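sanity check this chain:
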Amino acid sequence: MVKRPDPAERREEIADAVLRVIRRDGVGAASVRTVADEAGMSTGSLRHFFGTQSELLLFAMELVTRRVYERIGRIEFTGDPRTDVRILAEQFVPLDDDRRGEMDVWQAFVVAAQTDPALGEVRDRTDREMYEGFLRATTALDAAGLLTAGASAEVEAMRLHALVDGLAAHGVNHPHRMGADRIHAVLDAHLDALLVGGGSAR
């Protein structure tokens, strides 16, 4: 007997097709028809899983977010404050092909979210969760007495969040100017200024 495809796996395969289309041709090209072609299926078959382009984009956007969280969940943090903050920040910048692909399509989703309320909700929730993650990190640094005198954990979380967003955008849009080495250099310069004595040794 031929095994029927698992519906959840099939939905994820379709979402991967959405991501490929967006990265190659832009979010406007990710119609039900073009995604069906990319996934090697008929539009009728695809509509059994997603009825509209908005549903397709929403699921794909959620998938990108979930994969980032899953990657972070697999990290074995070191317990060294400076190292661990740097590792966390590195998950949101284009240091390799996987993260570059995530940043490429995320930028496209952010543009689409301006006119799609459902995508806007995912954008806003993800942004809030990123900030909360950075706030937990800077609060832990503050509790350990590692922030420079007068620094606010809340303000430093905002600064780190803004820095990471900027590095992600520059890394995607200007990869020859802002490659992995320069991204690392900027993160290290920021941590040198943020932490007492520059934090732990690199």
In short: The mean pLDDT is 92. The two ends are 57 Å apart (CA to CA).
